[in-house]
Amino acid sequence: xxRNYLVTALRNFARHKLYSFINIAGLAVGLACAIFIxxxxxxxxxxxKWIPGTENLYRVEVTWTVPGQQPLVWSVVPFPxxxxxxxxxxxxxxxxxxxxxxxTVATGNRQFLDPVSMVSANFFNIVQLPLVAGDRATxxxxxxxxxxxxxAARKYFGSKPxxxxxxxxxxxxxxxxxxxxxxxxxxxxxxxxxxxxxRDLPHNTQLGGDVFIPNTSLADPMSQKAKESWxxxxxxxxxxxxxxxxxxxxxxKLPAMIDRNFDPQKSAGIAxxxxxxxxxxxxxxxxxxxxxxxxxxxxxxxxxxxxxxxxVGLLIMLIAGFNFTNLATARAMVRAREISLRKxxxxxxxxxxxxxxxxxxxxxxxxxxLALVLVEALLPLYDRMLDKQIHLGLEDWxxxxxxxxxxxxxxLLAGLYPALVLSRFRPASTLRTNAAGQSGSGLLRNGLVxxxxxxxxxxxxxxxxxxxxxxxxxxxxxxxxxxxIVVMIAQGVAPSALQGLVHAFNADPALKxxxxxSDVPFSGAANVGTFEIPGKPGTSMVSILDTGxxxxxxxxxxxxxxxxxxxxxxxxxxxxxxxxVNILINRAAAASFGxxxxxxxxxxxxxxxxxxxxxxxxxxxVGVTSDFMFEGDRRKIAPTIYAYDPRDAFISVxxxxxxxxxxxxxxxxxxHGFAPSIAINRFFLSESxxxxxxxxxxxxxxxxxxxxxxxxxxxxxLFGLAAFSTERRTKEIGLRKTHGARTRDIVFLLLxxxxxxxxxxxxxxxxxAYYYLHQWLEGYAYSxxxxxxxxxxxxxxxxxxxxxxxxxxxxxxxxxxxIHALRYE
Length: 825
Prior knowledge:
By secondary structure, the protein is of the alpha+beta class. The strands form four sheets. The protein has a six-stranded mixed beta barrel with strand order 3-4-11-6-10-7. A six-stranded mixed β-barrel has the order 16-17-22-19-21-20. The two termini are 32 Å apart. 42% of the residues are buried.
């Protein structure tokens, strides 16, 4: 019996090659897309789940809420928070802290600039990264010890055993004023011994760095004052809860703990309670990759992206399933005579149902085999597009088994309708008319076509809006010139050498200007400070960015009123303990203070810093600049104060567009002349800007490809249905032509038949797409508007594609000789 079913199915496939190909290819492409999306989602959800023993480990995150500022949502926390939780909460078992910085790593006479992680001594006991060599219990017991990855060990020591080798770390200075006075900074250097080697970290981890040292090392750039401060966020803090402890109970106790340890009024003059200014949150360690908070150690994923890809995968599978069901139903309806003959010779209904279901499942399984072949062939290209290494092998048997189950279900569902309907035909009436006579199947097919195109149109609108938003963000007027700027991180360079560097850069004819600053655009958020504003009661929090003379000219930021800061004015500098300071503000700050740019000149603000020697420093506004997007399009332009501290950690140098190689050579030469013991860390600002969009564009391209495939599958099904429909209407068309219908009339008739489902699909797709896209765009500080043209373009494109798909069949039938049509059957 089974052999008979199989032979019949194969003969039917061979007899109707076009329909078999369309059915198998359409479902195969849909399954391949679904597999690719499953692999991406599985990879995003796998981050750090491979590290054992982290089920009860949580990252402590902070949200700063201060008057006059948007909430700052950070993944980094004040250093003492986790230690206080261990000491004051019985539910918290232990805590670890992690911070990171790029350091000069020297071995022999070779220098490297590599990421180094400063961690608590018990870090490897809590976060059990796989070791190759070393004793986990004593890895970082000594202050000047280090654990390196296998990759770093090969780079530093070649083929020599890494254990016991010596590395020199240094060139670091803590940002801020804790370890600095007016004369310079404390440069932290240390000689560390390698006490452990661990396996290279895979791509699916939030952790970074190739060298780990204890945060008690002399090379740790964080000062003791910073480690005691509750008002500044420094590094990532993790707490391990005791078995059975409820994280919600711990979070409920956090406000009281904050109030006991942190007084914003005393620390910064902010009239809020501790828990009102600082809200803490526990996030599972294994979910940190998908956190939306700023400041993660590695680029974050996004739950929105994960859910979006899952939705796209589901929709593509629905389109492929609808297409498969539609064509299976259509072809089955023309097999009425075959089924009736089988019933006449004694076939039972159950046997006929088994035949239809078996044929459908066989075709679905062939589609799965083809899909797996496509995935295996295209997976390297997919990896390059995602910049990841995603693998599918026999060890993924649970996934493969799930795919087989889903494929069989699709086959059963596709064959269910014809199995139930055709198996109950009455042979006498069917053999007399050679037709199934089931009008309901036409309604089903039209309904499935509508759903296919509704999904395709919705995805098309989504793709247009996503690409338009990325293009808008990329080309938005930033208010500054980002091109041709080389940025160097001068952390650890003494102030005297720093000033010498800047003067040498400005004097070199191969360069076009240089300036220092506390940060650079697109690298992070500006700091905030507490200020008394003229005419406003109390204190306000305002962003503050240290910028040296020449910063605004280097970045082509316009001065709207007043003058720029200068080294020739003593009060233009804001060293530690200054009694009076000149500052610049941006247009947004002037507007928030209630002044025009010209009226703001000469106004005096007061910096309120209870912990500084001068607790109320007068700040005189001597210039107003145009607004610029320091954080790109991620946040609205904030009111900002610009002051000059000559000990800042970033140097920006403008290079000529036609002399980049000579400019870079000059930068390297000057740097090594002033800081020979510190490896140069430079990058182009434009690269930092592009990095903001790299992940979005990678995922956008993949999303666009999936949308195109969804439309292709829908059109593939429409092509098959058009061939089926025109074949079934051959006699009708012959009669119309006999009564005078012209070829174009027949073509228009058939096109209109397939246009109606597409037009109905637009009515369904547009409001749904508008709702979800409107929600998505609200997450951007600067976003496009949902122009109706996006919807019209997607709908019109779907209509044109549908016409192009069916017009060949329509034209062929319309041009046919009506004599042959009337002799049909």
